[in-house]
Amino acid sequence: AMYQALENAAQGTGKEVVLVECGWHANDYIEKAFSAGAQMASPSVRVVTLDGRVAENRETAWASADLFCSLSDNIQETFGIVPIEAMAAGLPVIAANGGAVPENIKDGVTGTLIPVHDSNALAKAIISALENPKYIRNLAETAKKQVREKFSWDKTADSMIDIYTSVLRDSA
Q: What is the pTM of this model?
């Protein structure tokens, strides 16, 4: 879905689209399958693959991105930490509306939610992002602020203290 949507976005806007994939594959067969799929489904999109096990590569990926897409469904991503990391990095986020993702991304406020497994909706969201940079920059700024408020170490520590206090009170 990602490769098709990016090809549609590149064709629909006439803009250069570069996909940066930062992660790793379980084996060479899977890596080759992803590479072949990208070449077949998105021939006009330049794909850069970085080994996500290397910290510098992750930093490069975050710093070079204009937009972040997360297409994990609720089976693959139960909490949605990677979209939160993208929001913290100040990136506009397009994410599949599955699992816990909608608890952290409010559509049209802190990001864009699309139906799970819908490459047409993804393409439309990417095209909209490319054509409306001011709008998605506002989403990104709101999201970054929300992440700082909701997931700061102070907030996390306060939440843990509340949990421990509740457990201790209930067990007494």
A: 0.86
